[in-house]
Each structure stands twice: as structure tokens, then as C-alpha cells.
Design goal:
Blueprint lengths: L2 H11 L3 E3 L1 H9 L4 H7 L4 E6 L7 E7 L5 E7 L8 E7 L16
Parallel strand pairs: 1-5
Antiparallel strand pairs: 2-3, 3-4, 4-5
């Protein structure tokens, strides 16, 4: 598991998190509940790690909603800071763009 995601999980546990404006828009657009993302984060699978992202380290995580449907979530921490965890975006992955287990992009 990526080190940044371990830090993010601790921040989520301590309610030190925010949702970006874009994150809220995507949650609404894809009918995703924030409570599902918070409750499934600890079981998330990091599928891409961006430790040098210009706005701060972040990770793409495969999670599930309460119905077991896959959701991709990008979590991050602002550059130069220790907190908060930021839910940058979340979306339901397109089956045409991802492997059957939603962990690898199709060529």
C-alpha cells in the first residue's frame, strides 16, 4: 500500500478531510454517496500512485459503494502539508477503459 494512502486513511479516521468542489460535482453526477467512500476506504486498493503530483501527493484507489459496485477515488494531501485528506474526485469506472477488475487501464 502506498505510504500516502496510509496517511490518508489515518486522516479519514480522524475526520481531517475535505471534499474538493470537483469531487462534490462528480459524486453528484455519478450518484455516489460520500458515506460509502468513507466506510470503504480502509478496504481500498491503490491502483495508481502519484507521489510527485504538482498539487501534492495523491493516489487513485479502487473502492466500492454499499452495493459492491466499483468506484475510483482520487485521494490526496495538499503539497507541503500534513493534512487534510482531500477527496479530489470519484467516479464509476468505464468498463470499456478498464480491465475486468478495474485495476488496469486498457491499452
Amino acid at each position: 500500500m502506498a505510504e500516502i494512502f496510509k496517511s490518508i486513511l489515518k486522516l479519514i479516521e480522524n475526520n481531517a478531510l475535505v471534499v474538493s468542489n470537483h469531487g462534490y460535482e462528480e459524486l453528484s453526477e455519478d450518484n455516489i454517496w460520500l458515506k460509502d467512500l468513507l466506510s470503504s476506504a480502509e478496504h481500498g486498493i491503490v491502483i495508481e500512485d502519484y507521489p510527485d503530483y504538482p498539487k501534492g501527493p495523491c493516489v487513485l484507489v479502487l473502492q466500492q459503494d454499499s452495493n459492491g459496485e466499483p468506484i475510483h477515488v482520487v485521494w490526496g494531501i495538499p503539497k507541503g502539508r500534513q493534512f487534510p485528506a482531500v477527496l479530489i474526485t470519484a467516479y464509476r469506472p468505464d468498463k470499456n477503459l478498464w480491465s475486468d477488475d478495474f485495476t488496469r487501464r486498457k491499452p
